[in-house]
Design goal:
globular, 7 strands, about 150 residues, about 30% helix, seven-stranded antiparallel beta sheet, single chain, alpha+beta, Alpha-D-Glucose-1,6-Bisphosphate, Chain A, domain 4
Length: about 150
């Protein structure tokens, strides 16, 4: 079995607003990449994400963007030596609600690969919760969390 996961949640904001909160570095840095993001997410870009609670930069390659619908990313697995793939989808439930799904796959079927998938699943779920709090209420859940 190859480790992978998909998480999802609804955000009470229109798709365009939720999508922008992920691709815009100022928005993303307000609730998730609290150490900053080197630039906007656009197809073909490599951006560096920094987290106030995690040392160093995380290079993120944007492999595909479909505006207001899909973001695909690739980044190095935590055990190193290969990349995993992240797919985020944005779907209108109604005019003011967006269903966001985040899936990540590509880990090696090893104990370290499995551990990496668990850690990232937790991280993406936290990101989605932080996105919801930020988009709906302008609350940064990560502030003081770590």
């Amino acid at each position: 079995m190859t480790p992978g996961f998909e998480i999802y949640g609804k955000i009470a904001r229109p798709v365009a607003e939720v999508f922008a909160a992920v691709v815009d570095p100022a928005e993303l840095s307000a609730y998730f990449t609290t150490g900053g993001s080197s630039g906007p997410l656009h197809e073909g870009a490599t951006v560096n994400w920094r987290f106030a609670d995690f040392p160093g930069e995380v290079p993120v390659r944007v492999t595909r963007i479909v505006p207001d619908k899909r973001i695909e990313l690739a980044w190095e697995a935590s055990e190193g030596g290969y990349d995993t793939k992240v797919a985020m989808t944005f779907e209108a439930v109604d005019a003011g609600t967006t269903l966001v799904k985040i899936a990540e796959s590509g880990w090696r079927d090893t104990p370290k690969g499995l551990d990496g998938s668990y850690q990232n699943c937790s991280g993406w779920m936290q990101m989605l919760c932080c996105l919801k709090a930020w988009a709906e209420h302008r609350i940064n859940l990560r502030q003081g969390f770590f």
